[in-house]
Design a protein that fits this description.
Length: 377
C-alpha cells in the first residue's frame, strides 16, 4: 500500500561514518496521511525522520514533496515542523511566546502572531494558560505547547519523534486520540516515529516497520497485524511464540509433520509463499487454546503437546508458560492449568503465521510424542 506520493523517498540511504544506518528506503506518503515509523531501538527511525526534516543529508537517494526535489533544501525551507520527545520548550518564555517563537523567527507581524497564538491555544485546549512558564505546566500541557509551536507555522508536514513517550501512561492514551483527531481535522500529513506498537496501531493510517535500516513491511494496522510478511514482523507485532516445524505442501494445504513438539495439523496455504521444508511457526499467546491433553482438533490449525511450567494472572485471563518440545511458549486460557499438567495447545489456522526458514532444510529434532491431524482446507 502506498500513498499518492505527496511526500516521496526514493532509494534513501544514510550512514554515520562507515556505518550504514538506512538502506534502500522507498516510501510514498499521501497528503493528509498519518504514517507511523515503527521499529526497535537503533533500527534507524529517528535517522529517517531527520533525513525527511533535512537535518541529515542522505548519502544516497532523494526526498521530494509534491513532486519537487528537496533533498538539499534547508530544514526551514521544507514546510515541515518537528516535535520532539523532550518538548524542547524555552523555559524562560511563556506559553504564548513559545507558541509564537517560529513565527517571530520568520518575521511575522506582532498582531498576526498574537492572532495565531490565540488560535493555537484555543485549538489545543491551552486557553487561559498563555502567560504561564513551561515549568508550571503538566507534561501533557507542555507537549501541547510544543505541538502548538509546530503547528503555528502552518506546516504541510508534521514530523513527530516519539512525542508522547515522556507522558505518563494514562495521559498518553488521551493525547494519542487528541493528536490523531487534530491531524485529521487539519488535514496535515504526519510522520510519527515510535517504538510503541499499540501507539502506532491506534494512531496511524499506515505503519512502516523498520528492521536494521530497511523497510521490513508497510501496510494498514490491520494488515501488518494479521498478515505479517516475515517472522521478524510477526514477532514485532506480538506473535512472539516460536516453534520450528517441518511441513509438506499438498496443493493448497500445508501439512505440519509430527515432531518434537508433538505437532500436527494442517492449514490452508491461503496465498502464502510456503514450500515444503522447515518452517518457523509464530503465534500470539491469546491465539493459543489450552485444553486437557488429547482434546481433538475440530477445525484447521495446529496441535502441540506440552507441559505447564508456570501460571500467572495478568488480568482477564490466565497466562501459562508451556514447555513444547525444546521450546517454551506462552498461552492464555480462561481457567488456570496447574504447573506440571500435560496440555494440548491448539492454534487455529488463521492465527498461525508460518514462514519457511531461510535454508529450507528440515529442522532436526529428537523424536517425542507426536500426532498428525490432517483437516481438509
Ligand atoms: N550521530 C551518530 N553517530 C553515529 N552513529 C549514530 C548517530 N546517531 C545514531 N547513530 C546510530 O545509528 C543507528 C540508528 O539510530 P536511530 O537514532 O536512527 O535509531 P532509532 O530507531 O530512532 O532508535 P531509538 O528508538 O533508540 O531512538 C543506531 O545504531 C545508532 O547508534
Amino acid at each position: 500500500m502506498s500513498g499518492d506520493g505527496f511526500l516521496q523517498l526514493r532509494g534513501v540511504a544514510s550512514r554515520y561514518g562507515q556505518t550504514r544506518v538506512l538502506k534502500d528506503i522507498d516510501l510514498s506518503i499521501g497528503k493528509g496521511e498519518f504514517v507511523a515509523l515503527l521499529g526497535s531501538s537503533g533500527c534507524g527511525k529517528t535517522t529517517l525522520l531527520r533525513v525527511i526534516a533535512g537535518f541529515i543529508e542522505p548519502s544516497d537517494g532523494q526526498v521530494a514533496v509534491n513532486g519537487r526535489d528537496i533533498t538539499r533544501h534547508q530544514p526551514d525551507k521544507r514546510g515541515m515542523a518537528l516535535v520532539f520527545q523532550s518538548y524542547a520548550l524555552w523555559p524562560h518564555m511563556t506559553v504564548a511566546q513559545n507558541i509564537g517563537y517560529g513565527l517571530r523567527l520568520r518575521g511575522v507581524a506582532r498582531d498576526e502572531i498574537a492572532r495565531r497564538v490565540s488560535e493555537m491555544a484555543e485549538l489545543l485546549g491551552l486557553s487561559g494558560l498563555e502567560e504561564r512558564k513551561p515549568a508550571n505546566l503538566s507534561g501533557g500541557q507542555r507537549q501541547r505547547v510544543a505541538l502548538g509551536r509546530a503547528l503555528a507555522i502552518d506546516p504541510e508536514i508534521l514530523l513527530l519523534d516519539e512525542p508522547l513517550s515522556n507522558l505518563d501512561a494514562r495521559i498518553r492514551l488521551s493525547v494519542r486520540h487528541e493528536l490523531r483527531a487534530l491531524q485529521k481535522r487539519l488535514g496535515i500529513t504526519a510522520v510519527h516515529v515510535t517504538h510503541d506498537r499499540e501507539e502506532a496501531m491506534v494512531m496511524a493510517d499506515r505503519i512502516v516497520i523498520l528492521d536494521g535500516g530497511r523497510i521490513a513491511q508497510q501496510g494498514s494496522p490491520e494488515e501488518v497485524y494479521n498478515r505479517p510478511a516475515s517472522s521478524f514482523v510477526a514477532a514485532f507485532m506480538g506473535a512472539e511464540n516460536l516453534l520450528e516445524l517441518d511441513g509438506v505442501r499438498d496443493g493448497e494445504t500445508f501439512v505440519l509433520q509430527p515432531g518434537s513438539a508433538g505437532e500436527g495439523g494442517s492449514v490452508p496455504v491461503a496465498g502464502r509463499a510456503l514450500e515444503s521444508g522447515a518452517v518457523e511457526a509464530r503465534f500470539r499467546p491469546e491465539a493459543a487454546r489450552l485444553t486437557d491433553i488429547d482434546t481433538p482438533a475440530t477445525e484447521p490449525g495446529a496441535r502441540f503437546f506440552g507441559e505447564v511450567m508456570a501460571v500467572s494472572y495478568p488480568g482477564g485471563h490466565w497466562r501459562h508458560a508451556v514447555k513444547v518440545g525444546d521450546r517454551e511458549i506462552m498461552a492464555d486460557a480462561d481457567r488456570a492449568f496447574p504447573p506440571g499438567q500435560p496440555v494440548t495447545v491448539f492454534v487455529p489456522a488463521e492465527t498461525l503465521f508460518l514462514f519457511n526458514t531461510p535454508s529450507g532444510d528440515p529442522v532436526s529434532r529428537p523424536g517425542l510424542p507426536s500426532e498428525t491431524v490432517k483437516i481438509p482446507a
